[in-house]
Each structure stands twice: as C-alpha cells, then as structure tokens.
Amino acid sequence: MNQLTNAIGRNLPESIEGYGKVRPFTGAFATVPDMQRQAPKVKRILPNEQKLVEDIETVFKRIPVTDGMTLSFHHHLRNGDGVVNMVLAVAAKLGLKNLTVALSSVFPVHAPIVEHVKSGVVAGLDTNYMSGPVAQAVSHGVFPRPVVLRTHGGRARAIECGQLKIDVAFIAAPAADDYGNINGVEGPAACGSLGYAIPDAQYANHVVAITDHLMPYPLSPISIPQTRVDYVVKVDCIGDPKGIVSGTTKITRDPVGLKIAETTAKVIKAAGLIKDGFSFQTGAGGASLAAAYYVRQMMEESGVTGSFALGGITGYMVEMLESGLFRKLIDVQGFDLDAVRSLAANPNHLEVGADFYASPFNLGAAVNKLDAVVLGATEIDTGFNINVVTGSDGVVMGGSGGHSDAAAGAKVTIVVANLLRGRLPIIMDKVLTATTPGETVDVLVTERGVAVNPRRTDLYEKLKAAGLPLKTVEELKALAEKMAGVPENVITQDKVVAVVEYRDGTVIDVVRQVGK
Amino acid sequence: MNQLTNAIGRNLPESIEGYGKVRPFTGAFATVPDMQRQAPKVKRILPNEQKLVEDIETVFKRIPVTDGMTLSFHHHLRNGDGVVNMVLAVAAKLGLKNLTVALSSVFPVHAPIVEHVKSGVVAGLDTNYMSGPVAQAVSHGVFPRPVVLRTHGGRARAIECGQLKIDVAFIAAPAADDYGNINGVEGPAACGSLGYAIPDAQYANHVVAITDHLMPYPLSPISIPQTRVDYVVKVDCIGDPKGIVSGTTKITRDPVGLKIAETTAKVIKAAGLIKDGFSFQTGAGGASLAAAYYVRQMMEESGVTGSFALGGITGYMVEMLESGLFRKLIDVQGFDLDAVRSLAANPNHLEVGADFYASPFNLGAAVNKLDAVVLGATEIDTGFNINVVTGSDGVVMGGSGGHSDAAAGAKVTIVVANLLRGRLPIIMDKVLTATTPGETVDVLVTERGVAVNPRRTDLYEKLKAAGLPLKTVEELKALAEKMAGVPENVITQDKVVAVVEYRDGTVIDVVRQVGK
Fold it and tell me: CB distance B47–A226 less than 8 Å?
C-alpha cells in the first residue's frame, strides 16, 4: 500500500479499507473549510399529530431503520447509560446488519456492542473516547471496519459539515415532554448538560427522544427543541444514576500529584494570566482538580474575578462560580451532582453544544477564548505530541475527547504528567499514537521539572523569570529513563483498527491491531 | 397576463414581474415540503482573531456588501429602531444599489426606506407587517418590485428552506460581547426576546451584531451565539427606548370591546378548553388583553392551571405566569417592560425563535400546541377569510405577523371585531386582501353575536348548548349593512405592489396599487 507522511512525521496509508482516502494532518490551523453546512430534509407535522410512540421497535419500523444506517448516541449517561444497549438490542432483534454506531464516548457498560459486531449487526464505530471491552475489541481487530476516533469539537464539525451523516439520532433524555422538548437536569437519570447531543439533534435525518421521565408540555429548560424531534418513546429506565454522576469529585491526595498541580498553578501565574477575566479549563481527574485548587488560591490572593471556566464541569468549578471567582461556567458535560444542580438553577451556568464548546469550523468556539487549559497525557514525545488514545501496551484506552480542541484554542496549554506511568517513562522520542499535535502544547509539567515548547520562547522567558524549575523535554526524558530505563517499542500488526482524526478531519495517526 | 385561481377563489397572475412564478394557495395544510434545509457556508476563525470592527462602513467593505444583496433585520426595537436606518445610510453613502431589505416588520420610524427606494439603493422589501410611510409608499407603487408579505412563521420557513436567502443579517443587539454572543434583556435598548432574529442568525451567509451595550465575555443569557456571528460593531445608540417598549399595556375601557372580550372568554369556556393544561395566545391590543382578563377570571374560578401562553408577551401574561395561572410563557417578542424583566429573570419564561413559534415546516411549532387564540381583523368575509393587510381604502396598513400561523395551529381560532370599523361594515362577501384562510378560522365574535364557521359543527353544538348568541356570518353581515349600508368596492390599479404569501410559501393573494 502506498504511504504518506503527515505534518508531524507519521507514516499513514494513502487509503484505508473501510475508511477511504486519507487526508493527512497538515498543521493545527492549516485546513480552511470549503463546504456548505449539512442540510437535513425539511419536514412538517400537522397540528394534531402526536409524537409519542409505544416502543423503540415501533420507531424502527416507522422511520424505517434499515441496514447500513448510522445511528447516533450521546454519552452523558456515561457508564450508567442504558439507551445504547436498548436500541441496539432492538436492531439485533429486527435482524438489521452493518450499522454504524456514532456514540460520542464508549464506556465499559457498552460491552454488548462487541457481540453486535460479531453478529454483524454493527460494523462501524465513530467515537471520541473509549474504554473497557469495546476498546479492547477494537484493538484486537474485532471490528470489520476501522473505528473513527474524533475530538469532541471534531465530531461536531463532522456532523455540521456533513462528514458524519446521521440517519437516526437516539437521544437519551433525562426529561422530555410529549412533543420532544428535552433537557438533562430533571428526572432519575439527570446528567446535567446535553452538550454532545446538540449537534446530533440539529443535523440528523431523524431524531428520537428516549426518556423515562415524561413531563407536561412545555418542558423547560429546553436543551433540544421539539422542532427537531420526530418521535418520543417512554421507557422504564434510561440509565443507572450510580454510573451517571458521581456524588462529588475529589482532589487528589497523592503528594506527587499535588506538587505537579502546584507547579502548574505557578506556570499559569508566571504566564501573566491570573488577572481579571481569566478563563480556565481543567479535567475532572484528581490531579487536574488539584491544579484548580492552587489556581483558586492565587485568584483569591490576587482578588481576581475570572470570566469563565469551561469544559466538563465539576462541583469544584460550581463552588468557584458560587464564590464569585468565575462569572460564568460554560458546560458541555457535567460530572457530578453539584454540576447538575447548578446547571438547573444558576443562570450563570450555561449549557452549550459541542459545536459551541470546541468545533474548529464555526465563527469561534469557546475553547478559542481560553487563557489556560490543563490536560493529561499517557505519552508525550520530544516534539510535544501527546498520546491519549493508547496505553503502553498499544491497546486503546481513551481518546482525545476535548483534549486536542482545548489545546488548540487556549493561549497556554499545559500538560501535566508524572514522569513515570506504571513504571514506564512517559516521555519518548515518538508517541505510539499521536492525538494532539505538539504545536498546540506549550508546557509540560512533571514532578521533576517543567519543559516549555521551544516554539514558545515568550513563555520560556516568563517562566524563567518566575524561577520555575525549567528543563528541556529531552532532559526530562533522560531523567525518566535513568529511573526506569528505555521502554521497549510496542509491537503492532499492520491492520489499521482505528483512524485518529484531528479536529479538522485530517488524519493525525492510525491505531494498529495488537496481539495475535 | 394569464390568470389562475387559488383555493379560496382569488384570481392571481401566473407570474408577477419582480416576484416570479406564482404558486397558488391550495389549502392551509396542503403543501408538503420537499427540500433540504438551507446550508450556509462553513467558516472558521482562528483562536486569536477579533470580531470587533470600528464601524458599519468597515463591515460593509470587509464582507463586502455588493449591489443586489439581501440585508436582513429584526423588528424587536419596533418604532424605536435605529439600526435599519443606520445601516441603509451606509449603503447609500457607499453607492450601493438594488438591495433587498428583509425586515421582519416595518414601522413609521423606517420612513427613510422610501427615499432609499427612490434613489435606487433599495429595490425590494420582504416583511411580515408594515405601517406608516413605507406601507403608504408600497401601496402607491413606489417600489420597483412587489413587496413580499409573509407570516412570522412563514418568514422563518422561507429562511430555513432557502427561499429567503440572506446575504447579511444585521442584528440590533441590546447587549453583546466582543465575540458575538447577543441577548435582548440588558442594555438601554432592552427589548426582551430576540425571537425573530434567530432564524436570520442561523442561516445568513454573514451575521453582524450592532450593539450599544458591550458586555464582558461571555455574555449570558445567549439568544444568538458567537458561533454564528462574524462581526460586532459598537455604536452610540441602537434605538430609542420610548419607541421600543411601552411602560405597560392596558386593557380596553371601551364597553363594546369589553362585551366582545367577555363573549370571547365564554366561547373558550363553552368549547371545553378551560381545564388544566389550557394554552392560549392573544394579542397586545386593548381588546385582546380584555379577553385575557375574562379568561383569567374563568381560570381562577375553576382553579385551572394553564400550560403556556404564547406569542407576543405583555405584562398581563407575566402577571398570569407569576400568579401560577400558566406554568410557562413562550415568548417570541415582548411588548412591555414587564415582559423584558420577566424574560431576564424567570426560568419559566422561555425565549424562542420564530421557527419554534410558528414555522409550518419543522417537527412542530408551538402554535400547534395552542388550545385557543384570539385574533383581530380589518375585514372578514362570509367564507371566514380574514384581511389584516389592507384598510378600507385599499392601502397597506398591517400584515399577518403571526395571525395566519396561530390560526392554523390552534384548536379554536377566534376572531374578534366590532361589526363596524370606521363606520364601515367589517363583514363582506369577499375581503379585499385575503391574509388568513377561512378554513383556519373557527369563530367570529362581534358585539351583536357570534358566528361559527360551518366547518366546525362540533363547536357550533357546544356554543349553542352554552347559550351563546349564535348567528350566521351572513346574518351578522346583514346587521352591519343595516347599520352602515353596503360598503363600496375599493378601486385599485392593475399593478401588483405586494404578494401575500401564506405561511407555506404559496400565494394567498396580491395587493394592487391604489390611487393615480
């Protein structure tokens, strides 16, 4: 097969069976869109028509769902989601084949997908993140077609630009009325923001709300409007609350994690960002939250009011909103009960779609307005390219999610990591799977020092002046290797099992089969 | 010229110069859409790009605005609007010609449009309602092309379906941030809902926010999002608050109006609609508000909680929301300060776009869920067709606005009118300009009796059982003629000065030139 090399030196096939022609990554901001937006069919409904349908099977027959269609789902119910399995069971029962599942993230609870692949019901998967049995199955070559791995913003872009065409969007609806208005803040499966479902509902050819909490018309707030929803199905239960939101997310107690977090906050301050209007994104992991903790101290000390915190929202961010440290929260996904409660009640807590959050191809996503973002990594290389897709064994265990999007948008992008991960150095010459390109990563913070991307001489000078423990990324790599040796290369097969699309739709890397 | 006759017997040219081929009205629900939605160009903006531009002239040059383009505007600033005149003055200064102005409603303040037409800057007008000098000029044949008169829902449909293509939407923004998020509830020109601007922003090729109240990023609530706004211009003043909202809207004190209103409420009750979940729309005029007053008494007496009130929202509806008589308000346009205040603060007061309010071609507008709507009329004929476009002299003095939309959607559509209007009978064999088709009008309430559309035998029986003073429309017509004689036919010229499109885009009637 003919090969090509993309802008970060990855060798890629020119074309991949089951995916098509590869458009190589050419730089984080190199692709200029040249198309019209996706235009779904115009429909109508007569004033007395009803949308409530007795069960999912009836919906399948009414649409009708046929072989080869793309069915989309959102992941806001996370590992408590009951809707994907429920819908695919109907597809299997009806004998459908060759479906593509476009599910914004895949969790262990979605294990039944593997059986649907084996039986031919499902042939394709399009997602931004996956963990658990499905991710394992992908890596072991169970899927007949390579999985498409996107970023959160890239998925919104692909939908808006007609590159991910959705035949039917099944929306797990924590609350809905009988005319299809939906929100995520009420009902037993309340999950908060429905941000990832918003582009699906906007552009799918058919939209089905699946709810266990039918409310009187008109439901409000309205996250997804009646004007785009064809059918409403009431089921007993759309998900298990225990898997949907955690009671509360907690800051790490690991001293190494705390040290990295404190250094991260110092980097942000040294970069001159702790001032009125500061905007910030961090993850929900314990170490990321710890960074928020130290940032908060600095904001309080300096009497600073931030403009907004962005991304997946936790109770810690809610507390910062309620304390007046941020004027607004921009929420594409909530992680805990406090985030759900706040979104329901606080007008300064804004729900936005994945397009508003992170799409590269509109007139400005929220990530573009970020001052600082703190992100994780499973591997980083000396070109500052990040891997958050595969683990040290080459098996898929994640995905970009909003990683590449926030990295591209923020003024200062900081990756935090322990030098070792599972006794293996995290820094290498070349990451196994490039997810986020080095040109969008500014600083690496580890427990043994801080490396600044050589592209950011401005930032280097500021951090140096602030007395931060600067090292080159090569020096940090050498330190790690001194502790743990040089890791062996992962041996993979030739078969491409996943295509990693950058947020603009170009291919930044591929994942190859492991084992056998 | 060849003629055709539409489903309500109107003779229309087959084709109209400057408008094109006429698709005749074939029935209120006869048109089934068969197209894809309009797909504007996909754009992008880099993370550090700015949208704030120094003045409107610079925006014209950047886009660039060229001869023949369609510029759209919303009418939420009503007779206080400063933006339309401001923008068209720039167009004139730059020597542009042959522009089409797509302004959702035209008020006396927009008189300068007439001069722009005479000088060739503006050639076309697309609107849902007009009064004042522009309406006079239209009727006297000043425009080189016939004006297109739409309904509020029809305008949203035409934009969504690509039949009204907007090159540049200029959004008068009572509040905006520098990245283009817009709302109508803050700032000196606060007008409440921006519902009519929402489809424009969604589908225009270029969107410009013009504001006199620049807020820190991110502004919220967000009525129009940053993702669709190309440029933001700060000006000194977008409008005169005195012309935008009234201090408070008042119920009529006219005893005839009160009698009609009371009868109207009795019709609604007799129709069996005063029960939990009741939904209602009425206008902001004194007589319409009086109907709300009597409906309210009945709701209170029966201990009924309504689901929602819809449409243009007044302080009276806000009071009913706050008293728990309606669970929600669905607001496409606010009429007074109370409506603005409530929309800003009350989560049960929902802002919606014109598409959600009234478009016939989506999966269900709010009008479809209406139990009862109370509407006015300048003329009504024995086929229950309504004219709200031209006055007794044949001159344009209004337009459908949401009239035809609500009439089509509601379970019971009631038209209220004094038998005489300016000493002339309001009922005739054939209205001068058909706006809303009789098949969507159920009841006519006058001070001398109530006429039920013969199509609604079910309703006739209920109103009869309730002892309402029923008459046929012919009997009411005879009564009026006995008082005031048979009105003379208005003499018009041949030239078509306006095309009245029904909400589905078919032509329900035309307006011909008056005078000379």
Answer: no
Contact A42 B161 (CB under 8 A): yes
Q: Distance between CA A484 and CA A427 in Å, rounded?
A: 11
CB nearest to B39's CB, from A38, A347, A361:
A38
Q: State in words which class domain B54-244 has.
A: alpha beta
Q: What is the DSSP letter of B224?
A: B
- Cβ neighbours for B463, distance < 8 A, ≥ 6 positions apart: B267, B270, B271, B443, B450, B452, B470
ipTM, two decimals, is 0.96
Residue A364's pLDDT band (boundaries 50, 70, 90)? very high
Q: Indicate which of A183, A227, A276, A362 best probes the interface with B, i.e. most B CBs within 10 Å of its own CB.
A: A227
Query: How far, in Å, CA of B70 to CA of B84, rounded?
Result: 13
Q: Mind telling me how many Å the CA of A208 is from chain B's nearest CA?
A: 12
A226 interaction partners in chain B (CB closer than 8 Å): 356, 363-364, 366
Tell me what the pLDDT averaged over chain A comes to.
Answer: 96
Chain A residues touching residue B45 (CB < 8 angstroms): 362-364, 368
- Paired strand residues for A124: A100
A502 touches chain B (CB under 8 A): no
Average pLDDT over residues B58-80: 98
Choose, out of B36, B44, B280, the residue to mutate when testing the contact with A (most A CBs < 10 Å).
B44
Distance from CA of B196 to the nearest CA of A (A): 16
Per-residue model confidence as pLDDT tens digits over A440-496 = 999 999 999 999 999 999 999 999 999 999 999 999 999 999 999 998 889 999 999
Question: What residues does A334 pair with on adjacent strands?
Answer: A313
**For residue B284, is pLDDT > 80?**
no
CA A135 → CA A39, A359, A513, distances in Å? Answer: 32, 25, 11
Chain B residues whose beta carbon lies within 8 Å of the beta carbon of residue A33: 42-44
Q: What is the pLDDT of residue A1?
A: 64
In the block, which residue shows the tokens 């479902």? A197
CA-based nearest residue in chain B for residue A231: B363
In 3-state terms, what secondary structure has residue B511? strand
In this predicted structure, the answer to whether residue A70 has a pLDDT above a threshold of 80 is yes
pLDDT number for residue B248: 66
Alpha carbon distance B127, B104 (integer Å): 5
User: Looking at chain B, which residue has its C-alpha nearest residue A232?
Assistant: B363
CATH architecture of the region A49-244: 3-Layer(aba) Sandwich (3.40)
Q: Is A179 on the interface with B (CB under 8 A)?
A: yes
Residues B66-71: what's their mean pLDDT? Answer: 98
User: What are the boundaries of each domain within chain B?
Assistant: 54-244, 255-490
Q: Where are the alpha helices (DSSP H) in B394-497?
A: 403-409, 457-465, 473-484
Alpha carbons B197 and B1: distance in angstroms, whole number? 37
Q: Does domain B255-490 have CATH number 3.20.20.80?
A: no
Bond into A218 cis (ω within 30): yes
Residue in A34, A40, A356 nearest the CB of B36: A40
- Contact list in A for residue B358 (CB cut-off 8 A) is none
pLDDT digits (tens, 9 = 90+) for A367-404: 999 999 999 999 999 999 999 999 999 999 999 999 99
**If you search the block for the tokens 């939605």, which residue do you land on?**
B37
Q: How does pLDDT run across A108-158, given as a tens digit for each residue?
A: 999 999 999 999 999 999 999 999 999 999 999 999 999 999 999 999 999
Select from A351, A25, A362 the least CA-distant residue to A160.
Answer: A362
> For A255-491, CATH number?
3.40.1080.10
Residues in chain A within 8 Å Cβ distance of B364: 45, 49, 51, 179-180, 226-227
Helical (H) or strand (E) element with A410:
none
* Two tokens, residue B348: 């049960």
